[in-house]
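Need a sequence for this fold. Nothing fancy.
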């Protein structure tokens, strides 16, 4: 009986895992299909953020961030939050597109252009724990040469939730001036290894409780 129930639990978990990217965040606009970008948090507020059908990875629209061509190199953030569990490793991903013809002829001053995907964790008092984990793509210096492409590229970042974690934040970030960036299809899930550890622990606890119950009955 225990083996049968454990098998059922494994099958349910394997079926459920691929769909968790759409339910972990409360955000129902992970593909930027809503014209008003709700419920994403935009910083700073401004006209640099919009939805567009010019370049789309999946669906009908994507997020477009157009940085002003002025003397100030500014960071622009798009964020969302969800509940999280300490000790679990989470993986975030996003597809990005940098049309070569819409990037400036040279880097943003001496700084270059950058896009990034970040994960941060907070306690119940909204205090940031142990900083953010980032995965970045730079243009046109160093590894940044790989960021400029006429095709969509997926960016990944993973981080383990530290002790006292209650909330996870995911942030899409651009840094530069006079450039255009596109993002589409955001995903945040527990890594398969962490998910299986939770599952195995639950199965082990169930089996242990079953043995104790059976032992009592025999006694």
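Here you go.
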């Amino acid at each position: 009986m225990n083996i049968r129930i454990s098998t059922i639990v494994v099958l349910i978990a394997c079926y459920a895992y691929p769909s968790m990217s759409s339910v972990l965040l409360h955000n129902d606009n992970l593909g930027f299909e809503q014209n008003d970008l709700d419920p994403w948090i935009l910083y700073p507020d401004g006209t640099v953020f919009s939805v567009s059908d010019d370049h789309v990875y999946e669906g009908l629209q994507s997020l477009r961030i157009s940085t002003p061509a002025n003397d100030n190199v500014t960071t622009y953030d798009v964020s969302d939050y969800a509940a999280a569990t300490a000790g679990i490793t989470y993986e975030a991903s996003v597809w990005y597109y940098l049309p070569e013809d819409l990037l400036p002829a040279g880097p943003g001053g001496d700084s270059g252009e950058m896009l990034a995907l970040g994960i941060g964790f907070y306690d119940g008092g909204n205090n940031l724990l142990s900083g953010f984990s980032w995965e970045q793509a730079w243009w046109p210096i160093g590894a940044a040469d790989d960021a400029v492409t006429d095709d969509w590229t997926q960016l990944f970042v993973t981080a383990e939730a530290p002790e006292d974690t209650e909330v996870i934040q995911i942030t899409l970030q651009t840094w530069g001036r006079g450039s255009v960036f596109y993002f589409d299809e955001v995903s945040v899930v527990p890594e398969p290894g962490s998910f299986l550890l939770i599952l195995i622990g639950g199965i082990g606890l169930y089996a242990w409780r079953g043995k104790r119950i059976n032992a009592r009955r025999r006694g």
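For context: The CA atoms of residues 85 and 198 lie 11 Å apart.
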